[in-house]
Amino acid sequence: MGTASLILTNFEVDRWNADIYGAMALASRLSSLVKNRAATLKLAYDLRKLDWTMASFFHEIHKGIERGKPKERDITPEQVLDAADTLLKMHGTISGLYEACKRARLTNHSFMAGSLRNINEYNEEVLELSSLLKTSLRPEMVEAIYNRAREEQERGEVFDLSEV
After folding, report:
1. Fewer Cβ close by (within 10 Å): the C or N end of the chain?
2. SS3 76
3. Nearest partner of 13 among 66, 67, 76, judged by Cα
């Protein structure tokens, strides 16, 4: 659970919830704006706002991971599961927003395409982070992955990425 502790202890619980639920609320509002094409400028502005919000969120997570040593706080498995489930909800909300934008052909719109692409990429990171948090609850699985990688390296089953 070391990785989860590292990520979650760098956020206060209230701040974590505010960031996650704030992004989900914004994505839900945007989803309703997509249906009303008259609000194009507002939609473009809010998409940039969501893009910035998600960039800030992941910047804080990466900064906390780089710092390495977590703050002294106990993180319970329930908190980790709750965080992972909340991230899954956020992923679903943003996926719905992106699909609605795709159907409305906004992914080609000059004001919105860049923000939508970034939001979609961050959404994949949201899913990966959720998976990482859930995996961190199973230390035996993490250890097995590292052991298998170590064994493959000892056998010489290592490949250059350019060959893959």
Report:
1. C
2. coil
3. 76
pLDDT (average), residues 49-66 = 89
Residue 145, CB half-sphere, CA atoms under 13 Å: how many? Answer: 7
Q: How far apart are CA 18 and CA 160, in angstroms?
A: 42
Q: How far apart are CA 97 and CA 58, in angstroms?
A: 19
Residue 87 CB coordination number (10 Å): 22
Q: Summarize pLDDT for 96-119 with one digit per residue, the tens.
A: 989 988 888 888 888 889 999 999
Residue 13 has pLDDT above 70, yes or no: no
Q: Residue 68: which region, alpha, beta or left (left: phi > 0; alpha: psi -120 to 50)?
A: left
